[in-house]
Amino acid sequence: MGRMSASTERPRSGRREATRRRLFEAAVDLISEQGYGATTVDEIAERAGVAKGTVYYNFGGKSELYTALMEWGVTRLADTLKAAVPPSASPGEGLTAVLRAGVVFIGEHEALARLLMAEAWRTNQAWYATVRQIRTEAIGVISGQLDRLAAEGAPHPGLDTGLAGSALFGMVVTVALDWRTLQPERPVEEIHATLAHMTAGLVGTPASPPKNV
Amino acid sequence: MGRMSASTERPRSGRREATRRRLFEAAVDLISEQGYGATTVDEIAERAGVAKGTVYYNFGGKSELYTALMEWGVTRLADTLKAAVPPSASPGEGLTAVLRAGVVFIGEHEALARLLMAEAWRTNQAWYATVRQIRTEAIGVISGQLDRLAAEGAPHPGLDTGLAGSALFGMVVTVALDWRTLQPERPVEEIHATLAHMTAGLVGTPASPPKNV
Amino acid sequence: MGRMSASTERPRSGRREATRRRLFEAAVDLISEQGYGATTVDEIAERAGVAKGTVYYNFGGKSELYTALMEWGVTRLADTLKAAVPPSASPGEGLTAVLRAGVVFIGEHEALARLLMAEAWRTNQAWYATVRQIRTEAIGVISGQLDRLAAEGAPHPGLDTGLAGSALFGMVVTVALDWRTLQPERPVEEIHATLAHMTAGLVGTPASPPKNV
Amino acid sequence: MGRMSASTERPRSGRREATRRRLFEAAVDLISEQGYGATTVDEIAERAGVAKGTVYYNFGGKSELYTALMEWGVTRLADTLKAAVPPSASPGEGLTAVLRAGVVFIGEHEALARLLMAEAWRTNQAWYATVRQIRTEAIGVISGQLDRLAAEGAPHPGLDTGLAGSALFGMVVTVALDWRTLQPERPVEEIHATLAHMTAGLVGTPASPPKNV
DNA sequence: TATGAATGAGTGTTCATTCAT
DNA sequence: TATGAATGAACACTCATTCAT
């Protein structure tokens, strides 16, 4: 937060909050398509339907807008993944659910996912810390399920669940983005099915006939 | 006399070819560290030890240099992966070998891998076609091994090997970059081992005995 | 709010219009002295007392500024010529008046006249259409008087008044510019007198005393 | 072709002279269309079919090439006009002949004529002196005929023949260029006829019957 | 006599940022 | 709370010129 001078937090999104949201949406679309450097503040303001100065009034600058954007978006991803695991789920079910939720989320927020991958390893950017931290959270949700599997004496005792979480995260994002970019007409179920095949060995599911779960 | 010969090829490397190579090397380093937008032509020329005009004389512009760079680099990746599969290898061995080669390559060419992921889904860039095409080649090598597995009646009959190839590609790049970025001190063998665990179900390897770690 | 109003017109001159005018004035002087290619945007901005970016904010680029300039200037020429013919004038008087007005205008706007001649037949320039069109207007005022003369059964029945207008236009501009460039100290009346001599045959005026013919 | 290094002037145009001529021709066309500033040495060399360095080897630089060009071209104009007056011609016939020769010359050397008008009043250019001097020569031929007319007690006793020569020169060039640019399909005779009409008053020709066409 | 790769000062243009309204 | 005219440092790019071959 941080603007807000005299009075306290105002929950109701007045004119200001609406402006910020419009700027967010304009920025995600443009930056994910063109990249941060190639997207101008003019473009963002124009697509949002406001004057250029308004960007500065509301966010202080281009990079602050971008950081806020990443924070906003990636938090939603982490929250979505966390919410995807039913409390009663078995570890295997939990893992499957998380991966499915990831695919669905990316299908609905392609732009954000593209940004996430583009910035994930660019360590010398101002917003790297933000991206990394929340990316870690997202991966943590996956690793959490792997830990539960391991605790149950799952197939691979010595598995490095941290690294494996990163692996599954990369797998999900890559598959989902390739799907949206190259074959957007395919039903999401086919994507899920492929991922289920890929992780069958981990989950301990008999590969071909997924009777249970 | 004096005009270009028929094709762009120029057999004698001579002065010009040497200059181009130096510019390539300077550009990969700088752009992968700083990003395309944040890298200036002046910097590239300076690191290559040539005058700025030489960049334009040889490549025509910044973006053309970048495109040539991507083509050059990503071709090397695809070639490396292709060379990684011994002719006599079983499908399972072949897949394992490809993934290992991918990790090794990325370990040695982080810069390139970062660029690859950053640009992979940025469809409106001038160089998108180049990146996509050669990325497809790289994934094709993986999918090829999966096809061989499938032909042998591997664990998952209905597997979409194209999508699965993309999944494994994303997994390998993500893991390898996370390794280099967050835990560069870990031995490469631990990375291989984790990937082996992840793909055990596919390869049909008895999951339990990962003796080599 | 905030976007452009319907047309490009902007009723309140305000700050912006003042800036544009200053840039115009700076540009005419500099370009007519040095030529378009030899005049830099920096120079124009400096003489106008604004920052370089302001040129781009207001005109979009150097060539657009130049086009606007030509349009502005040449429109003034055409307007001046049109206004020079008193409604009650005879055709002969009208023609004389137009030529006199042309000489006076050029005497006061050498810079513009030089540009006009320099660009008049440079057909592949961005601003050629503009120059040509308004030049045609100016010539049209002359041709109009010639038409009236012809209608009165003037000396030369078969005269191509369009071409003749072009001829007189070229004559006036050439004489006026040679005057300003080579003999600026001569009184304007001597220029008028010479032109009157030259056109005496057309106008049918007793050229002082045209005893014969 | 020979080597032949250390001999004296070679009147016969060897390889070198041919190269120079090709460069001349390329340069007139390009510069007259685009202007001096907008024409690059690369373009000139390419159109001439030689390497860029050859321009420097033969002329020393771009502006030297241009100066040589102007000198070459404008000398030809003056010579042509001088040659156009038969020794036996009356002053009136002589003037008519000069103007006709001017139109014909410009019809065949449009490019040169455009340059002449574009540079005629640009006093701060390196080649201004050249242009002015030879332009003066050309006008001198016209003024010469006017002087003869005046000496015969021609229609306008007090005529300033210097200024009048300039006027006729401008008239001829303007008409001829407008003809080539806007109505190139018209026969040259129509242009001559119009000019004859315009100068009828000077020449003392009975206006109505322009029998000679 | 000619070439063309290389140069680098100079220029047009962009764009994040400021600020008076 | 929002605007948009103005800014100027930074940048991509141009092109006349040089020189080793």
Automatic annotation (TrEMBL), chains A, B, C, D:
The keyword Transcription applies. The keyword RNA-binding does not apply. Keywords: DNA-binding, Transcription, Transcription regulation. Residues 17-77 form the HTH tetR-type domain. Residues 40-59 bind DNA. SUPFAM superfamilies: Homeodomain-like, Tetracyclin repressor-like, C-terminal domain. Gene3D superfamilies: Tetracycline Repressor, domain 2. This is TetR/AcrR family transcriptional regulator.
